[in-house]
């Protein structure tokens, strides 16, 4: 699924739970990134939850949840949209555990009439490699969404079209595939999907805020907001019932989504092999990695392994980032579907609560120290040319030095400089990337260095991160 300035008082007095394991500095950085991003973007509100050490250490809401809820609270259920997909995938895994189906079964075993149903597996539905055409690729409500729909109606209109590609040959996001998967859950379990999830997942984890998004509409719930270009922020009209279903039907608090993240980190509720299966990325028939598992993306953030998904529904965006190795997660829910505030907030919060990335070994630590020295020298205009090769010294002529100093010095002292990713060979040198973090902006450093801990920089380029 995928400006107006907020009232200053709302931003200044957010509702909060106890941030017991956050230092004052960390809490201050989080408050700053959220309030500044909301104010700059015009997004009415954000609800966040942070897990660290396998425990929820922060649940906090900022801004206006709706025209009838002027101050957001952490308990409010926001629409999480496509973050619902991992729950649909979990339902199929649980049914597989019971021996009622196999993810390698073909769709036609359970639902007749689906295009390619004799060759599409349940696993391919969940991994977005089925070839079924996506019924909602838009970032707006299209005309049909003004009228209610059933899962069968979506299937009849989109899942019986010719496939976009042969199953397993491409990766293409498909909400349609999840509607088909949800119908299979219901047929095999004999229960509505939401009821199955409530009994098997939500109740055991104490996720008490969860509601079907079709019912999360009205004066007691957050409203979604929209914006046309750079015009005023306006209340959006929800889609008619039925349009998100198994592809994105859930509304919940950020805290309850964090409880699910904790279960993922600790390998509880589901068997450990189910969690592993969800986080194992699907390979195409040509061997290419899709970087997508069963309802989740699998990648890295600042060199850390990350299980992630975002969500978009009418007037809402969500971002959920889980760092299993650090027992940390960041969940951000917003009631707008314009701009990039949800990602800006999520990345800012993650960088506030995660420990600084550690250099892989003494050699990488030495290069980080040298990179910091060179950067500080460029800011001050006192570059130590012994750290540079002849070519790098040639690059940093008087004009380059003057431009670096005049543009970087006004930014002040950065919060930190960290390495991004690992080192890799390039043209006889070793390529390394670094990120320079300030309170409100980021810079990137791209370097090539001579081999070995005592080498010099052949390249040292600083650019803005957009």
Question: What does the secondary structure layout of this molecule look like, with pairings?
Answer:
Elements: H1 8-12, E1 15-16, H2 24-41, E2 45-52, E3 55-63, E4 78-79, H3 85-97, H4 122-127, H5 151-159, H6 175-189, H7 193-202, E5 211-212, E6 225-227, E7 233-235, H8 245-248, E8 250-252, H9 254-266, H10 272-278, E9 297-301, E10 304-313, E11 316-323, E12 328-334, H11 341-353, H12 362-380, H13 390-395, H14 398-408, E13 416-426, E14 429-437, E15 442-449, E16 457-464
Antiparallel strand pairs: 1-3, 2-3, 2-12, 4-8, 5-8, 6-7, 9-10, 10-11, 11-12, 13-14, 14-15, 15-16
Radius of gyration: 24 Å
Care to count the β-strands? 16
Order of the strands making up the biggest sheet: 1-3-2-12-11-10-9
Counting structural domains, the number is 2
Could you state the CATH homologous superfamily of the largest domain? Answer: DD-peptidase/beta-lactamase superfamily
Tell me, what is the CATH class of the largest domain?
A: Alpha Beta
The CATH topology assignment of the largest domain is Beta-lactamase
How much strand? 15-25%
Helix % is 25-40%
Number of helical stretches of at least 4 residues: 14
Unreliable spans are: 2-19
Series of secondary-structure elements, N-terminal to C-terminal: HEHEEEHHHHHEEEHEHHEEEEHHHHEEEE
Indicate the CATH architecture of the largest domain.
Answer: 3-Layer(aba) Sandwich
Name the overall outline: globular
What would you call the structural class? alpha+beta
Q: Can you summarize the main beta sheet?
A: 7 strands, antiparallel
Arithmetic mean pLDDT:
92
């Amino acid at each position: 699924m995928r400006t107006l300035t907020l009232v200053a008082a709302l931003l200044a007095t957010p509702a909060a739970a106890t941030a017991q394991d956050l230092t004052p500095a960390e809490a201050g950085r989080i408050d700053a990134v959220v309030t500044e991003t909301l104010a700059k973007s015009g997004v009415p509100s954000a609800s966040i939850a942070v897990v660290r050490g396998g425990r929820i250490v922060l649940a906090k809401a900022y801004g206006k949840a709706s025209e009838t809820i002027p101050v957001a609270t952490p308990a409010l259920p926001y629409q999480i949209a496509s973050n619902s997909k991992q729950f649909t995938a979990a339902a199929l895994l649980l049914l597989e555990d019971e021996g009622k189906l196999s993810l390698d079964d073909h769709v036609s075993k359970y639902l007749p009439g689906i295009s390619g149903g004799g060759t599409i597996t349940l696993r391919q539905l969940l991994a977005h490699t089925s070839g079924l055409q996506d019924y909602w690729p838009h970032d707006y409500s299209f005309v049909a969404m003004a009228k209610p729909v059933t899962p069968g109606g979506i299937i009849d209109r989109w899942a019986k079209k010719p496939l976009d590609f042969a199953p397993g040959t491409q990766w293409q996001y498909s909400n349609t595939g999840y509607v088909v998967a949800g119908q299979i859950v219901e047929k095999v379990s004999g229960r509505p999907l939401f009821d199955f999830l409530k009994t098997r997942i939500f109740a055991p984890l104490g996720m008490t805020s969860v509601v079907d998004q079709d019912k999360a509409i009205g004066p007691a719930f957050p409203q979604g907001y929209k914006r046309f270009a750079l015009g005023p922020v306006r209340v959006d009209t929800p889609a008619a019932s039925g349009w998100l279903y198994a592809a994105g039907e859930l509304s919940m608090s950020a805290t309850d989504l964090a409880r699910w993240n904790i279960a993922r980190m600790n390998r509880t509720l589901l068997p450990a092999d189910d969690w592993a299966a969800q986080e194992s990325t699907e390979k195409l028939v040509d061997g290419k990695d899709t970087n997508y598992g069963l309802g989740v993306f699998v990648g890295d953030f600042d060199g850390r392994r990350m299980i992630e998904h975002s969500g978009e529904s009418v007037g809402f965006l969500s971002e959920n980032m889980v760092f299993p190795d650090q027992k940390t997660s960041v969940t951000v829910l917003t009631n707008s579907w314009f701009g990039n505030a949800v990602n800006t907030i999520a990345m800012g919060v993650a960088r506030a609560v995660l420990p600084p990335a550690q250099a892989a070994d003494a050699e990488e630590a030495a290069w980080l120290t040298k990179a910091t020295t060179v950067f500080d020298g460029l800011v001050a205009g006192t570059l130590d040319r012994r750290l540079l090769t002849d070519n790098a010294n040639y690059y940093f002529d008087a004009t380059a030095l003057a431009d670096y100093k005049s543009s970087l010095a006004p930014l002040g002292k950065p919060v930190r400089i960290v390495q991004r990713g690992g080192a890799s060979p390039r043209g006889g040198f070793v390529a390394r990337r670094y990120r320079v973090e300030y309170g409100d902006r980021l810079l990137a450093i791209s370097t090539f260095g001579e081999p070995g801990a005592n080498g010099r920089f052949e390249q040292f380029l600083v650019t803005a991160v957009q």
